[in-house]
Amino acid sequence: MTQPSTADRHGSAPRWHQRRGADPGRWPDIATVPASPLRARVAELLLRRVARRVGLRVELPGRQSFNRTAPFKTPPQGAPVLRLEAPDDFFHRIGSGGLIGFGESYQAGDWDSPDLVALLTALAASPGTLVPPRLQWLRRWFTPRRPAEQLGTPENARRNIQAHYDLSNELFALFLDPTMTYSSALFATTADGAPRASWELLVPAQHRKIDRLLDLAGVRYGTRVLEIGTGWGELALRAAARGAEVVTLTLSEEQKQLAERRIAAAGLADQVEVRLCDYRSVTGQYDAVLSVEMVEAVGPDYWPVYFATLDRVLAPGGRIVLQAITMPHDRMLASLRTFTWIQKYIFPGGLLPSVEAVRTTLDRHTSLRLTERHGYGIHYAETLRLWRERFTARADEVAALGFDSVFQRMWTLYLAYSEAGFRSGYLDVQQLLLTRDGDPR
């Protein structure tokens, strides 16, 4: 089992000191703390402003309130808590690396929170206003540029995908439900529209989501289906169970092996072909093309190629259905060329699109149009909650697979950060129907 190497190839600050508990071979930027005295001071001043504006309680070691040392009122009881365990290291990391430093400082144990999701939800509610307008120029200090080796070229795309999905099938099995579905579920709802979410209801909720995608794409007996992004095969299995003929593409060796075993065990191997294939290389014509939470990995430079490929392989009268995580258009534009903690540690090369970006790309590069969409972001928040709770509850089993405490804190933050994005409304998940002009709908 190999954990990701995070050596900083994009320019590193002078090193201040070593932190205990992180293997410097696996986690060079966690094991060492950069020296950035001036930037650390700026980071401290910004945290004071953010705490006041958002209503955070910031605690120092010994539970002394950081807020009381600043000229503003103490936040109310019940306010989200940011607990600084190593304040100096925290400010130096943020001063040197901005939001990447914020994530790395959590991995290192510089800070924590008794309710991580509540804290991150408060911060995610208005990310564009955390830094005052007169200080926005400081972003150039704190925001590194996206490295060229993460661009979604055919060569890089395989490496980017494998860095996440080839970690270990056993790792994903520890926190995913038995369908091994790694995308938002669609729960039944209460009378007021709230999702009825529990671990016991996750499997039917994942099947409900997949069935709605297949219905929207018109998949039935004899349909020729192309799936871009196999995952561990559940959508392909349910499409084949309807009598469809399925070709499904993945760049993950681990996923391909397990998906093929599951398909064979279901007796559907003669209806489903799993190809280790880049989306750009696919050939043939298909009545239905489906892709679930894969466009996020393509990268903005290759969105035109991705959507043009969908257009090229769609048979006349066919339908394309995507499930995509989306973000507001202005925030997407602000993120286009920046390098984020998620890109460095979780999803290399990825970027969430906006609905407007999808529409614009379709209009400029294809004959396709976005004709229907359904958003259900709060369901993703609940899906992520269930995954996060199961991941943390099975920490000993994660460790037994060889994943150390830095990795476990990294994934806990990733799952909580994502959940907070959906709870705050900053992120949404959408099912999108694409059709050609003039085709029947």
Would you summarize the structure shown here?
The protein has helices spanning about 30, 35-55, 85-110, 115-125, 140, 155-165, 170-175, 200-215, 235-240, 255-265, 305-315, 330-335, 340-345, 355-365, 375-395, 395-400, 405-425; strands at about 15-20, 30-35, 55-60, 80-85, 110, 225-230, 245-250, 270-275, 285-290, 315-325, 370-375, 430-435. With about 450 residues, it is an alpha/beta fold. The chain folds into two domains: about 15-145, no CATH class; about 150-435, Rossmann fold.
The main sheet orders its strands as 8-7-6-9-10-12-11
Total of helices: 17
Note the overall shape.
Answer: globular
CATH architecture of the largest domain: 3-Layer(aba) Sandwich
Supply the number of structural domains: 2
CATH class of the largest domain: Alpha Beta
Cα distance, first to last residue? Answer: 47 Å
Portion in strands = 15-25%
Kindly identify the CATH topology of the largest domain. Answer: Rossmann fold
SS elements, strand count: 12
CATH superfamily of the largest domain: Vaccinia Virus protein VP39
Features:
3-stranded mixed β-sheet, disordered N terminus, 17 helices, Rossmann fold, 16% strand, 441 residues, alpha/beta
Map the helices and strands:
Elements: E1 15-18, H1 28-31, E2 32-34, H2 37-54, E3 57-59, E4 81-84, H3 87-108, E5 111-112, H4 116-124, H5 139-142, H6 154-165, H7 169-175, H8 202-217, E6 224-228, H9 234-241, E7 245-250, H10 253-265, E8 272-276, E9 286-292, H11 303-313, E10 314-326, H12 329-335, H13 341-345, H14 355-365, E11 368-375, H15 377-393, H16 395-400, H17 405-423, E12 428-436
Parallel strand pairs: 3-4, 6-7, 6-9, 7-8, 9-10
Antiparallel strand pairs: 1-2, 4-5, 10-12, 11-12
Helix pairs in contact: 2-3, 3-17, 4-17, 8-9, 11-14, 15-17
